[in-house]
């Protein structure tokens, strides 16, 4: 690194920043638990969504729709 490069400072990042998308974790409607056992899946329902049939450790069974 030359002296002029050192004086210029760090090089700017030329790539645009990526947006952050956060998704909540599926929780049991009965107890609020997150330890779920997925026992059936429809990976693509034709519109890009997925459907899971799950069972919680508390015994509650329900479906999770991922859009």
Give the helix/strand class. Answer: mainly beta
Distance between the terminal alpha carbons, to the nearest Å? 50 Å
Mean pLDDT: 86
Number of helices: 1
Question: Can you summarize the main beta sheet?
Answer: 3 strands, antiparallel
Helix content: under 10%
Poorly predicted parts: none
Could you give the order of the helices and strands? HEEE
Widest β-sheet, arrangement of strands: 1-2-3
Number of strands: 3
In percent terms, what proportion of residues is strand? 25-35%
Task: Indicate the radius of gyration in whole angstroms.
Answer: 23 Å
User: What would the principal axes of the Cα set say about the shape?
Assistant: elongated
List the defining traits of the structure above.
single chain; 67 residues; mainly beta; three-stranded antiparallel beta sheet; 1 helix; 30% strand; elongated
Report on this structure.
β1 (36-42) and β2 (50-56) form a beta hairpin. This protein is 9% helix and 30% strand. It has one helix spanning 3-8; strands at 36-42, 50-56, 61-66. By secondary structure, the protein is mainly β. It is built from one helix and three strands; from the N terminus they run αβββ. It has a domain at 26-67. The protein has a three-stranded antiparallel sheet, with no helix packed on it.
């Amino acid at each position: 690194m030359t002296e002029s490069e050192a004086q210029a400072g760090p090089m700017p990042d030329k790539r645009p920043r990526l947006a952050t998308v956060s998704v909540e974790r599926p929780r049991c409607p009965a107890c609020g638990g997150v330890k779920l056992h997925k026992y059936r899946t429809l990976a693509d329902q034709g519109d890009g969504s997925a459907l899971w049939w799950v069972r919680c450790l508390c015994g509650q069974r329900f479906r999770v729709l991922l859009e």
